[in-house]
Amino acid sequence: MPCFRSISAWMALLGLCVAGLATTPATAAEEAAVAAEQKMEAKPRSEPRGRLPNFYGQVVSEKQKEEIYEIQSSYQAKLDELIRQIVAIKAERDAKINQTLTPEQLKEVASLRAESEKRQTERRAAATKSENAK
User: Fold this and answer.
1) Where along the chain is composition biased (Basic and acidic residues) (predicted)?
2) Between vectors from CA 124 to CA 122 and to CA 128, what angle results, nearest 5°?
3) Is the confidence at residue 24, as pLDDT, over 50?
4) 0.90 exceeded by the pTM?
């Protein structure tokens, strides 16, 4: 079962869920929950792998690494379920918030989000161009 180990991955997933809410508030919570579920599904790994906590890799043996990976694996299903619940609750909350807005306000919010995404894309492109010029 996959796991999103970084905050940025979860924030991106949450952003995708919330972005969909602005355009279709009636079924947004359901769609966001489905999207989160699809993101969580993946092929199981054939052997345990993971990421050791910071600095553990420098001090543990191979046997201890395997034990740590097994421990992490045993908790991952619980963590994944809690994350699914959090995403679903946030999607439900955001859908209710969007229901308080008028259609004009929803359009304005969608427009503001689009402008923000455009600026962010432009900044990333400029940063990439700057790095490539070095």
Assistant:
1) 114-134
2) 115
3) no
4) no
